[in-house]
Amino acid sequence: MRSALCTISLMLTFSIQAEEIALPSSAVTIDVMEQSRGQKHVELDVTNLTSDINGALDGNVADNTVSGSNIMASGAFADSSGISSVIQNTGNNVLIQNSTVINLSIK
Q1: CA dihedral 14, 20, 22, 23 (to 10 degrees)
Q2: Is the whole model's pTM more than 0.70, yes or no?
Q3: Lowest mean pLDDT among 18-22, 26-30, 60-64
Q4: What's 10-71 look like in SS3?
């Protein structure tokens, strides 16, 4: 599907000759260039976020246990996007704590 979309998009592209580009007869001012560029001034609000994780692991016993190995295939994250979190455990009596804090504000 992705290759079909790429092929269609390549077929729909168009070309333009340098002679067809209309250039202004006078120099472009700095103000016009500042308004035209992609970068904008962004004001940031700083927010401190915390996640307190206080796990305890006491008095556990593991007798006659077998631990294996963790294997991830070469394409395990091929189609992933955004924020990913992977936790693997090969042991016994293991306390795994994980925390992800995300604060996103788009205005």
Answers
A1: 110
A2: no
A3: 18-22
A4: HHHCCCCCHHHCCCCCCCCCHHHHHHHCCCCCCCCCCCCCCCCCCCCCCCCCCCCCCCCCCC
Cα–Cα distance measured from residue 31 to residue 29, given in angstroms and rounded to the nearest whole number:
5
Span 47-53, average pLDDT: 83
Q: How far apart are CA 3 and CA 10, in angstroms?
A: 11
Confidence band, pLDDT 50/70/90 cuts, at residue 16: low
Distance CA 101, CA 106 (A): 17
* Element holding 7 (H helix, E strand): helix 2-12
Contact 53, 99 (CB under 8 A): yes
Dig out the tokens for 47 from the structure: 């927010």
Single-letter amino acid code for the residue at 13: T
Alpha carbon distance 24, 32 (integer Å): 12
